[in-house]
Each structure stands twice: as C-alpha cells, then as structure tokens.
C-alpha cells in the first residue's frame, strides 16, 4: 500500500520499523522512550541529537534557535504575532490560499489588524504574486507567507526579499509545514520558519520553530509564556513536558534523511523526479488536469481533477483497491490530491502513474 495522505502523512517505513524495534525496550535500557523523564540524561541525549541532526540537515546558522513545541502549526498563527508585535507595528501577509488566510484571520482576531501585502486571490490562487506586487505597510513588523499551500498545491518559486522603503529589513516568516526538508534551504533568508510535523517531520501535534536570536526580544509582555519563543529557547523547549515521543520520532526521521537518503540535496533530486513524473502524466492525458501555473506547481501536493467528475468515485474506489490510499482532494476543493512528501517512495508515484494511465484507457 502507498499512502498519499496530506497529513498526518506517511512516515518512512524504515523509521516505523526502527520505532517498533525500540518501542518496549529502548536500546536495552528496559523502558520505552514514552516512559522516560524528559529531564533524564537518556532523553536529553535523544532530544539534543534530534536538534543537532536537524541543524546539520538544514544548515541552520548558530544564531538561530531551534524549538520543539506543540499545538500544531495553527497555534503558530497566534504565536508568531504574539512574539513579534511587542514593539509595535503591523503583521503583513502574502495570501496564497487557505492556510495563509487562516494565519491572517488569527492575527486579525488577536490584534484587530493585519495587512495583506499581496494576494493570489485575484488569480484564483493559481499563481503566486510576483515579487514586485508585494506592497508592505509602512509599519510592517514582519511578512508572513506560506511557501507551499498544501490544499491548493501552489508553491512559491522564489523567496520574497523584504525591505522597507528606507532599506531596513523586515523579518520574513514562513509556514513551511508542507515543504520543510523537501530540499535544501537558505535559513539565513528567514526570521522565523515554523512547521507542523505531520508531513515531512513526524507525528501530528509537534511543531518545529526555527527563530533568529535577535527576534527573541520582540514579544508582547502579555503573551502566554508557553508560546514565548524566548522562554522556550531559554528552557531548551522544556518549559513544561514536551511531546517526548514525537520529538524522538522526529529524530529518527532526521537520521533517516541523513543516512538512508543522504541529505537534502539527494532528497531534493528524488522529490523533483517524483513530481515531474506525476505532472507529466497529468499533462499528457486527456482525462486529468492541474490548473496551477507551471512555475508554481507544488512538488509535495499535486491536486488534479478528472474531465468528468462523475468518474471521481470510481477513480477513488479503484485506486483504493489497488493499494493507492487517500487520493481524495481536500473537502473544500474536491477532485483528487496526491501528497508525495519525503516518505512517499518513487515507486509509489510510478504505481500511481501506471494506475492513472490504465484507468484512463478503460474509462477515459
Ligand atoms: N499550515 C499548513 C501549510 C498546513 O498544511 C497545515 C495543515 O495541514 C497547517 C498549517 C495546520 O497544521 P495543524 O493542523 O498542525 O495546526
């Protein structure tokens, strides 16, 4: 079976097997990682290794802190403005779809205003705004964007450059929930990167935040301390009991990326091949289509529709029979969506492409 779920998504089989081996008795210590005190020497070693491996994989510079927190990526929709609006200013956003929109809504809910510096809504979210269209407010405290919109399958083909008119820098904040670790990244371009874990990192609920150290002093005084990047950083992400087992599993995924895959350049090449194959199959068919501008097509989430939507049900039922799971599009958009995150092997894409071609020949 191959799992094309958008999230919680497939985990690498090798990671699940390793977790099973270690589940009851972690490396001969006589207990499960789930049963360890987060303050124990053993667990702290697990947590520190996970952080070090992630830092190495992404090349995170030493003046950035890595936090392992909880509450899903959605909690960061509130945590980011709380952490960055303490010295005044307005939150700025690029709106490219459902997730970006939710982040805007939360900032407005908390602080009454949020400036939309650019939006792809005029283009039905089929292409991202061009860099020259980004118009920051004069008091922009930061610019938030979603490099990969998971539901729309819309991805940025550039990293926004963000400067005020006077040349000063506006920190760039990226919700990388559905694209982190899919390839190499220049972390130094960003003020904050955050990602819910359940696509390319590990189990749902866990969130990784990478924050530049100089931004730790911009938090509002009235914010909940559990959401405070400064306090999380000071406590090594252990203000309270962290999601210990999820953090451990994330560590296994980082190890897998390093040793089984060979790092993010290698992962990038695999992801490129996978998405090229799937989009080619879609573009070369009369039955399937994807409307996103070619340069902005997501490598992780590939939505597509059938020329005759009356065939949707059959397509999904037959795919399921063939062991190709969770291809139904998001409930808000319909159609199909194949999420092909890191853990989905190239063979899964090959199997999907073969199935699609066969289905088209029989029903198209
Ligand atoms: N941001 C993006 C880009 C997502 O894809 C998702 C979830 O799928 C979220 C945020 C919300 O994540 P969570 O459910 O962990 O809050």
What is the total tally of β strands? 14
Q: Indicate the proportion of strand residues.
A: 15-25%
Mean pLDDT: 96
The name of the CATH topology of the largest domain is: Aspartate Aminotransferase, domain 2
Strand order of the largest sheet: 2-10-9-8-5-3-4
Q: Please outline the major beta sheet.
A: 7 strands, mixed
Domain Aminotransferase class V: 2-352
EC number: 2.6.1.52
Keywords: Amino-acid biosynthesis, Aminotransferase, Cytoplasm, Pyridoxal phosphate, Pyridoxine biosynthesis, Serine biosynthesis, Transferase
Function: Catalyzes the reversible conversion of 3-phosphohydroxypyruvate to phosphoserine and of 3-hydroxy-2-oxo-4-phosphonooxybutanoate to phosphohydroxythreonine.
Give me some keywords for this one:
single chain, Aspartate Aminotransferase, domain 2, 16% strand, Aspartate Aminotransferase, domain 1, alpha/beta, 2 domains, 9 helices, binds pyridoxal-5'-phosphate, 3-stranded antiparallel β-sheet, 364 residues, 7-stranded mixed β-sheet
Written description of the protein model:
With 364 residues, the protein is α/β, with parallel strands linked by helices. It has 2 domains: 2-9 and 262-363, Aspartate Aminotransferase, domain 1 (Alpha-Beta Complex), CATH 3.90.1150; 13-260, 3-Layer(aba) Sandwich (Aspartate Aminotransferase, domain 2), CATH 3.40.640.10. Helices cover 35% and strands 16% of the residues. The protein has helices spanning 13-22, 41-58, 72-84, 98-111, 229-234, 244-261, 264-283, 312-321, 346-363, and strands at residues 2-3, 64-70, 90-95, 115-119, 140-145, 148-149, 154-155, 172-175, 192-196, 206-212, 288-289, 301-306, 324-325, 336-339. The protein has a 7-stranded mixed sheet. Strands 11-12-14 form a 3-stranded antiparallel sheet, covered by helices on one side. The protein has a two-stranded parallel ribbon with strand order 1-13. Strand 3 (90-95), helix 4 and strand 4 form a beta-alpha-beta unit. Helix 1 crosses helix 6. Bound molecules: pyridoxal-5'-phosphate. Belongs to the class-V pyridoxal-phosphate-dependent aminotransferase family. SerC subfamily. Its cofactor is pyridoxal 5'-phosphate. The modification N6-(pyridoxal phosphate)lysine is found at residue 199. Homodimer.
């Amino acid at each position: 079976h191959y799992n094309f779920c958008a999230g919680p998504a497939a985990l690498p089989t090798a990671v699940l097997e390793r977790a099973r081996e270690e589940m009851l008795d972690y490396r001969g210590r006589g207990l499960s990682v789930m049963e360890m005190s987060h303050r124990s020497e053993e667990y702290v070693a697990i947590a520190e290794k996970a952080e070090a491996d992630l830092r190495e994989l992404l090349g995170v510079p030493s003046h950035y802190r890595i936090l392992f927190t909880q509450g899903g990526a959605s909690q960061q929709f509130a945590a980011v403005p709380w952490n960055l609006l303490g010295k005044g200013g307005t939150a700025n956003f690029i709106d490219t779809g459902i997730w970006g929109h939710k982040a805007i809504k939360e900032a407005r809910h908390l602080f009454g205003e949020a400036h939309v510096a650019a939006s792809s809504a005029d283009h039905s979210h089929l292409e991202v705004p061009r860099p020259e269209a980004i118009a920051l407010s004069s008091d922009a405290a930061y610019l938030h964007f979603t490099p990969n919109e998971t539901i729309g399958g819309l991805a940025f083909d550039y990293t926004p450059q963000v400067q005020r008119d006077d040349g000063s820098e506006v920190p760039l904040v990226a919700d990388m929930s559905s694209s982190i670790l899919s390839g190499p990244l220049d972390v130094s371009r960003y003020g904050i990167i955050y990602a819910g874990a359940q696509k390319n990192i590990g189990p749902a609920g866990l969130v990784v935040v990478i924050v530049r150290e100089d931004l730790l002093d911009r938090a509002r005084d009235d914010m909940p301390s559990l959401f405070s990047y400064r306090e999380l950083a000071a406590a090594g992400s252990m203000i309270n009991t962290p999601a210990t087992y999820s953090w451990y599993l994330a560590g296994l995924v980082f190890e897998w990326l390093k040793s089984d895959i060979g790092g993010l350049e290698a992962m990038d090449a695999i992801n490129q091949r996978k998405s090229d194959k799937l989009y080619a199959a879609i573009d070369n068919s009369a039955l399937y289509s994807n409307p996103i501008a070619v340069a902005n097509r997501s490598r992780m989430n590939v939505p597509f529709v059938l020329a005759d939507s009356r065939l949707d049900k059959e397509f999904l039922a037959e795919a399921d029979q063939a062991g190709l799971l969770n291809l139904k599009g998001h409930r808000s958009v319909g159609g199909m969506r194949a999420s092909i995150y890191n853990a989905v092997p190239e063979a899964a894409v090959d199997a999907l492409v073969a199935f699609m071609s066969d289905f088209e020949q029989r029903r198209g």
